[in-house]
Amino acid sequence: MQSFQQDCVALALRRYRRGEVSRRTLLAGLAALGVAPFATDEARAQAARQLVMVNWGGIANQGFGRFYGEPFMAANTGWTVVQDSTGPSAGRIRSMVESGRVTWDMCDSSASSSNLLGRQNLVTKIDYSIVNRENVIGPGFALEYGAAPYSFSSVLAYDSAKFPQGGPTSWADFWDLRKFPGTRLLRRDAIGALDAAQMALGKDPANLYPLDLRACLRKVAELRRNAVYWNSGSESEQFMRTGEAVMGQIWHTRATVLEAETNGRIKFIWPQALLQAGIFVIPRGNPGGEMAQRLMASMLANVEPQVGLLQLLGNGPTNPRAAALVPQELRRKNPTDPENARVQVVLDGNWWGENYQQANADFIDTITG
Amino acid sequence: MSAAGRPGVGWWLLILPAFLLLVAFYIAPIVQVLAISVTEPEPGFGNYERILTSSAVQRVIFTTLRICIITTALALLLGYAIAYAITLARPVARGWWILAVLVPLWISVLVRAFAWVTLLRRQGLVNNALIGAGLIEEPLPLVWNEFGIVVGMVHYMVPFAVLPMLASMREIDPRLLAAARGLGASRGEVFRRVFLPLSMPGVIASGVLVFIFSLGFYITPAILGGGKTLMVAEWISLQILDLIRWGLGTMMATMLVVAILVTLAIFSRVVDLRRIFGAGA
């Protein structure tokens, strides 16, 4: 399954190829994503002074390197941050930690995976005496086993040409096939889909958690005959663009691209969108030891690079001071802009961490049933 | 070979290095991974119990078997017709036929899956043509379901079905067909009573090959299924990479290996597999 970060990188590369962003911006964004030049043999030789950041590939390599790696290197002379784009899935982290030969220091993960890995003692707790909790906008961005230097959101996007009477304004509308007929699009993952289902069931978004799993799954089953499910961001974009689906829950980065490309025919709304933390984790027994905690602190503290990353890849900043620095024309696209954040629902990473394994298995079971 | 027709010790020593290499770097790691299925989350056969108790696990298995059986049947049907035509074609035409069978084999499975998406989607070539011709009002659901998966898989499997059948059909002595005609059999009878029985070993070999290959299909169902159909291979990857339920994932992997071995064992009793896969030829 493609992660959000993987998708950001794919998207940025495409924009670069089309000439929509310059090479400099591209590299900048990639650096912010913590993706720097590959580790060379020489670099490996001085491994003691090196931190390895692992991303989902492509343009993230350069983006993370420039926006996360470089600020850290500038502040810690003698240390290098290198990027590895193997794709740090929870399964890969587990096999590395259990084999006893850990080469990764910092992995792009998710709230639910960080909890899952934490409970199996596969990742290190974040040391909040080094990492400053004040540097993130909310408690969901600084978890026990991971912290988030970026954010993203699962928004409701729809084809306005299909609904001349006015588009959907909530997840309840998303589930209303009579009022808004047509194929729906959801990610093939419980996270986001069940939260939306819970809102469609009428629960107050301010007190959404804990989700009523059984009711949410039943709600998801209602849509089964009229829905398709995406695995990767480009796939979600394709489903919307080609008219296979008239309405979908997709990542805000893809939604903004679609909106621009179709001159507003495909729209997306921030209300009730699910704001999520882009959580990084530190594998247990990482070679860089405590320096990884300092890198995490640096990623959360440096505001300008976070804005740079938003410009390049669309990842929202998580530092509370960042939103004010975002250029006016980008604010509509920033998930953590106060205007947008106010109407969204912050996805509860802790609840999902506790319940993801079972909920996702049941979700997959429901949609493939 | 020694006098008794059995390989002597010297021969065994020659293959020993290759054998050890295989055991150390291939078989041992696989066994190690598969062993996780009886050690996680707790030692015992709890994961295997799920085959009997979990409807989710059963559904994945039945979906996979259903799709594989349908795919195998269709691929054999189409493949048989193609192989038959090639066997009867003149030598020049035969070369072109074989090229036409082989070319798709060289195209990436990913590219082919996406090509089918372009053809079959709501505003795809097929639906647009049918709507344009006034045959249908609403686009037909040709993809994002099991139908789409079967189309994609059959397309991938036909060459694998054709080749073993072709080999076996070309071994049939054409004089037998002529003799049958001479003895008064009609064309249909010649095919039914002479050609078809003689080509059966090829059909079985193709069937085994296609079925086993289908069991582990990953990309085609993932792209053409619209996320609504889950086959074994994708299910295993989900358990291992995303859900970190390795016990369950390796249990299914073990079942896949067992299913393949059992299929081979059954058919090796029916036909001489070594001959079919080219060892004895």
From TrEMBL, chain A:
User: Where does this protein reside within or beyond the cell?
Assistant: Periplasm
Q: Which one Pfam family would you cite for this protein?
A: SBP_bac_8
Q: Name one GO molecular function term.
A: thiamine pyrophosphate binding
Gene Ontology cellular-component annotations: outer membrane-bounded periplasmic space
InterPro entries, alphabetically?
A: SBP
User: What is any one GO biological process for this UniProt entry?
Assistant: thiamine transport
Q: Which keywords fit this entry according to its UniProt record? A: Periplasm, Signal, Transport
The highest taxon in the source lineage is Bacteria
Q: Which family does it belong to?
A: Belongs to the bacterial solute-binding protein 1 family.
Name used for this protein in its record: Extracellular solute-binding protein
Q: What species is given as this protein's source?
A: Neoroseomonas soli
Automatic annotation (TrEMBL), chain B:
Cited PROSITE patterns: ABC_TM1 (PS50928)
User: Looking at the record's lineage, which domain of life comes first?
Assistant: Bacteria
Subcellular location(s) of the protein? Cell membrane
Q: Does the keyword Cytoplasm apply?
A: no
The ABC transmembrane type-1 domain sits at 61-267
| Listed GO biological process terms | transmembrane transport
One Gene Ontology cellular component: plasma membrane
Query: Per its UniProt record, what Pfam families does this chain match?
Result: BPD_transp_1 (PF00528)
Q: Which keywords annotate this record?
A: Cell membrane, Membrane, Transmembrane, Transmembrane helix, Transport
> Where primarily located?
membrane
The UniProt record lists the keyword Cell membrane? yes
What membrane topology does this protein have? Multi-pass membrane protein
Show the stretches that span the lipid bilayer. Answer: 12-36, 56-83, 95-117, 147-167, 202-224, 244-267
Question: Its family?
Answer: Belongs to the binding-protein-dependent transport system permease family. CysTW subfamily.
What is this protein identified as? ABC transporter permease
- Write down the species: Neoroseomonas soli
Q: What is the lineage of its organism?
A: Bacteria, Pseudomonadati, Pseudomonadota, Alphaproteobacteria, Acetobacterales
